[in-house]
Amino acid sequence: MKATVHVTLKPGVLDPQGQTIQQASEAIGFTRIAEVRQGKFFEVELSDGDDPAAARAELERFAREVLSNPVIEDYRIEFLSA
Amino acid sequence: MKATVHVTLKPGVLDPQGQTIQQASEAIGFTRIAEVRQGKFFEVELSDGDDPAAARAELERFAREVLSNPVIEDYRIEFLSA
């Protein structure tokens, strides 16, 4: 089973990396890039041979405990195939 | 206008960061995470007051020239609102 995980900063959390990208874009002539926020994106392949529900639950835990920092980040999982 | 940009490694390009995440996940007891590939994800706000088509074209160029490395990465843009 394939899945994707998006990890994004919670609303209100400052994103200095995104701000830097936006400022640099202005400096090199991009005039319409008003705001940039950077997140992470993971493509995950799950071994779900015997128990797809357990694989889904494991990915939920993996996203919450490993891929994201729940203090400042949100995560969103999409399962791409059953 | 809001848009998102996904930047992912081209198929066939090794992803040592993703491999490290996968191996670490095994080491701490996640048994069903078979493969991880890491990409980048950007949320972009465009100033498109006068000319939405120009804003879209600028984001295309920004994704191609700034956010991604076209030698090893692909990018995908989604426009979220008109």
Task: Furnish the topology, listing elements before pairings.
2 copies of one chain form a homodimer.
Chain A: E1 2-9, H1 16-27, E2 33-46, H2 52-67, E3 73-79
Antiparallel strand pairs in A: 1-2, 1-3
Pfam family, one (chains A, B): PurS
EC number (chains A, B): 6.3.5.3
Protein name (chains A, B): Phosphoribosylformylglycinamidine synthase subunit PurS
Q: Total helix count of chain A?
A: 2
The name of the CATH architecture of chain A is: 2-Layer Sandwich
Structural class of chain A: alpha+beta
Strand order of the largest sheet of chain A: 2-1-3
- What are the segments of chain A in which pLDDT stays under 50 over at least 5 consecutive residues? none
Structural domains of chain A: how many: 1
Tell me the greatest interface: A-B, 35 and 35 residues
What's the overall geometry of chain A? Answer: elongated
CATH homologous superfamily heading of chain A: Phosphoribosylformylglycinamidine synthase subunit PurS
Keywords (chains A, B): ATP-binding, Cytoplasm, Ligase, Nucleotide-binding, Purine biosynthesis
GO molecular function, one term (chains A, B): phosphoribosylformylglycinamidine synthase activity
Catalytic activity (chains A, B): N(2)-formyl-N(1)-(5-phospho-beta-D-ribosyl)glycinamide + L-glutamine + ATP + H2O = 2-formamido-N(1)-(5-O-phospho-beta-D-ribosyl)acetamidine + L-glutamate + ADP + phosphate + H(+)
Pfam families (chains A, B): PurS (PF02700)
